[in-house]
Specification:
Layout lengths: L11 H28 L7 H36 L6 H31 L5 E2 L2 E2 L8 H28 L1 H21 L1
Antiparallel strand pairs: 1-2
Length: 189
């Protein structure tokens, strides 16, 4: 009896899923810091630091999204080069939901970039590295940018909840793995 083939360490799908979880973590940080920023008073000492970190994470997710799109195209190229998908209602739902998620992954940080640029120039950095201005300084557009950033964030959060519900079995399996890992760590300590 032959042994089962060993999985490749550079499997593109594994890279894509790793990127998925890294970005999920970064978007969680962005949502948490965004909610905190909305609720902070103007005189709070760490407000500027939190804003700068929030903007840096926003730029980071835009950069990672480019890499993720590249990986996704490689996965699709390999997957659909062999056979086309079965065009079922489930396939349309999953593809449509993921398309909307990717649109929101771009729209939320890009609207935040617009918001920062609308207030004043040279307002965004990636953990201290200055980023170029994409949008002009425009005080009148700042309120539109703020509304766009707030609304796209909320719509994105709704799509994430729908994604969680649609992927219930995966979420449940990952939750069990996490709990088992925590129990294992506690047993050692």
């Amino acid at each position: 009896m032959s042994a089962a083939p060993t999985p490749r360490l550079n499997n593109i799908f594994k890279q894509l899923m790793s990127m998925h979880w890294w970005m999920a973590g970064l978007y969680s940080i962005l949502f948490a810091s965004g909610i905190t920023i909305e609720r902070l008073q103007d005189g709070v000492s760490f407000r500027k630091l939190l804003y700068d970190a929030h903007k840096s994470f926003g730029v980071l997710v835009l950069l990672l999204l480019g890499w993720r799109a590249f990986l996704l195209l490689r996965v699709w190229g390999r997957k659909y080069a062999k056979h086309l998908p079965k065009l079922t209602s489930n396939w349309y739902f999953k593809t449509g939901l993921h398309t909307l998620l990717y649109v929101m992954m771009v729209a939320v940080p890009l609207s935040g970039y617009w918001l920062s640029n609308a207030y004043h120039a040279n307002n965004i950095s990636l953990f201290g590295i200055p980023m170029p201005d994409i949008f002009p300084v425009d005080g009148e557009a700042a309120s539109q940018a703020a509304a766009a950033h707030s609304r796209t964030s909320k719509v994105f959060a709704i799509f994430i909840v729908v994604h969680f519900v649609a992927q219930y079995k995966v979420v449940k399996a990952n939750w069990r793995r996490l709990v088992a890992w925590i129990v294992k760590i506690r047993a050692k300590g």
